[in-house]
Amino acid sequence: MSATELPLFPLSAVLLPYGKMPLQIFEQRYLDLIRDCMKSGTGFGVVWLRRGEEVAPKGSRQQLGDLGTLARIVDFDQLPNGLLGVTIEGRERFHLSGTRVAANGLVLGNVVFEPMPEPAALDEAWLSLSEILENLKQHPHVRRMGLEIDFEDAWQVGYTLAQLLPLEESLKYALLNAGDIEALMDQLDLILSDISGEG
Question: pTM of the entire structure?
Answer without folding.
Answer: 0.91
